[in-house]
Amino acid sequence: MAAEELLAGSLASDEPPRQTKRPAAFVDRDGVVNIDHGYVWRIEDFAFVPGVREAAAELARLGFAVVVITNQAGIARGMYTEADFVRLTKWMRERFADAGVSIAGVYHCPHHPTAGLGALRISCDCRKPAPGMLLAAARDLALDLQHSVIFGDKCDDMRAGRAAGVGVRVFLGRDGLAPPTDPCTDALVSLRYASLAQAVADPQLRRALGVEAGRARATYTGASYGRNP
Fold first, then answer.
1. Catalytic residue among 28, 140, 144, 153
2. Is 30 annotated as catalytic?
3. pLDDT digits (tens, 9 = 90+) for 18-31
4. Cβ-Cβ contacts under 8 Å for 211 (sequence gap 6 or more)
């Protein structure tokens, strides 16, 4: 299957199916991976949040499959196309690869329940806070959701994580500038930080993830691997 092919809201990859499970680090895109200028779809408008690639590389080193999950209502609104999203995503993954990070998968929701055009105007099970993207990734990539972590800058990210059964939910500030100020109850949130880089560097998060000894808790053994375009 070609890497750029779109299937059920995901970007497919070349990794073969696995029989065992591993934990994932689910990462929201806009506001966590890149500066959220609003409906970012052009390469020239995409700016990485400082330290995010290095933090993702550390998560991968610790044994987590790094998976990007992103609502893309701009597609539903007709502001850009699926092809535009694929083009930017391929470039983004290449930039992560430059930093030594193999992104395991990229899942996106192209729908909106009220502002979508045509067939994209639906109430779906993939748009966060629904857990559809996380559940699809768990099936596709053989992920252990209970021992996984989700990082997001919106309460809907935390709600999606809880609905999917993700064990650790980390609430981040928008664009990595300051700790989050949006109201999000403690029942939804495990820990709060300004940025992914700050979170990954904190021993408290590492304890929550069970990586004091340097590797993630996991229900699999074997060689390391990744999914790349």
1. 28
2. yes
3. 568 999 999 999 99
4. 62, 63, 217
